């Protein structure tokens, strides 16, 4: 396609746009940068384009969201949603639904960590750790946990 640059080191992309009312061509320029190693700082892009932006408050909010997502994954992983006496079909459907929700949330946490922001990585691991401590430790007697299953 004319006007597009495909070089691996070139992050500027120009894409021809339709003509405007004056008959002139409008072009849109994007500056794309993706980190390929861990970095520190509030100027990150996590899960959605432009989020959290450059605001410190929004960055902190994004860290809280990632922490809560990973905590929620652990809660779902260690909760028992099926009641005794439930029909086999309804139990299977509920178990499938909860597995689907847990998988989706786990992928969201993974994608957030793929921003390569050090703070996001730390809060994701912390959320899983706190969730494991709170929810898994209630499964059995302390010190007698069964082997961890993946």
TrEMBL record:
Region (Disordered): 1-20
Transmembrane spans: 57-76, 107-135
Alphabetized GO MF terms: copper ion transmembrane transporter activity
InterPro entries tied to this protein: Cop_transporter
Listed GO CC annotations: plasma membrane
Keyword Membrane: yes
Subcellular location(s) of the protein: Membrane
UniProt keyword annotations, A-Z: Copper, Copper transport, Ion transport, Membrane, Transmembrane, Transmembrane helix, Transport
Domain of life according to the entry: Eukaryota
Keyword flag Mitochondrion: no
Major location category of this protein: membrane
Pfam families, per the entry: Ctr
Membrane topology: Multi-pass membrane protein
Family, per entry: Belongs to the copper transporter (Ctr) (TC 1.A.56) family. SLC31A subfamily.
Name of the protein this chain belongs to: Copper transport protein
Taxonomic source organism: Coptis chinensis
